[in-house]
Amino acid sequence: MDRQYAIYAAEQAKTLLAIDSPTGYTARAAEWVKDAFAAMGYDAHITTKGGVLIDLGGEDTNDALLLQAHTDTLGAMVAEVKGNGRLRVTALGGMRAENGEAENVRVYTRAGRVIDGTLQLCNASVHVNGEYGSTKRSFDTTEVVLDEDVKSAEDTRALGVEVGDIVCFDPRTTITDSGYIKSRFLDDKLSVGILLGLAKYLRDSGKTPSRRVYAHVTVYEEVGHGGAGSVPAGVTESISVDMGCVGDGLQCTEKQVSICAKDSGGPYSYEVVGKLIEAAKREGADYAVDVYPHYGSDVEATLSAGSDIRHGLIGAGVYASHGYERSHVDGVWSALKVLKGYLEL
To answer: Residue 55 and residue 200: Cα distance in Å, rounded?
Structure first.
């Protein structure tokens, strides 16, 4: 597989990253994903739950493969309009205040207005707050400061802001000349880009997999039930294409594809993990096998929902997960090679 498909995948991910889509507010991103696959000629539709199910073609419908990635991200929700006009927020997914502090945000009101702001420590001026360094960061000690002239709860509510409104963090996406991809929410929009890269390869090459291949881009992975439905008939295996972990005690780097043998939910299918390793070797992918200490995936939700399938997990290596993340085009390329090899194209 040519590296151009990895570059294409990264570019598609960059476009998707510009569409705010924290868990619970994913309709625009899902519509973009549906349109991107449909533009290549694939049958893609929005599920009742709000995800996107795509038929990538293939022969044997009784031994089908389901690839899963997710387009929902971390974010926040307005929990209180404070008396000073600022906002206390609550996390959507695993968003952490320590990581989001001083980040620009967008508040989406029910009326459709988008209001800029910043998540700041309460009393954020170092020259005023003597406890600045020792204050434990949480969503109770931070607040969203709106970029509007508001001084009271009434002022803020007059803008249309209310409890339950969605708060989105600026992803700050960039792709460097050296191939590094830096952004919030590479978990897991980079993998959606990878699935689009695979779809483009299938279209360009004219190759038809020997087994039917479906893709499910889910929208509730960050809260644990994204993959708990929409499994087409005949699926016997499912692979989550999610971020590969990079950190102390693990082998993977951002320039590799990670094959997960076990995470917090237990071991992945020994058979599937073995076939993924063989696919990586056959295609010359730069890979590592790792155990993730704090992780869960869409495919585990699929199993928990009762599906009788074998399961696996791969992903381009991503450093600083759930923060300002970093991967590399080479890691994307290796992930695509593994998928190609797994499909025996």
So the answer is: 13
Interior/surface letters 69-102, b for 16+ CB within 10 angstroms, e for the rest: bbbbbbbbbbbebeeebbbbbebbbebebebbee
Cβ neighbors of 239 (< 8 A, separation 6 or more) are 65, 66, 67, 68, 272, 276, 299, 311, 312, 313, 314, 342
Q: What are phi and psi of 193, to 5 degrees?
A: -60, -40
Q: Which whole number is the average pLDDT over 250-273? A: 98
Bridge partners (DSSP) of residue 75 are 92
d(C-alpha 293, C-alpha 47), whole Å? 32
Which residues are the active-site residues?
221
Q: Which two tokens stand for residue 28?
A: 């625009």
CA 77/CA 191 separation, integer angstroms: 25
The β-bridge partners of 119 are: 144
Q: Tens digit of pLDDT for each residue in 114-131? A: 999 999 999 999 999 999
Mean predicted lDDT score pLDDT of the chain: 98
**pLDDT, position 202:** 98
Q: What is the pLDDT of residues 217-253, one digit of tens each?
A: 999 999 999 999 999 999 999 999 999 999 999 999 9
CA distance 183 to 220: 20
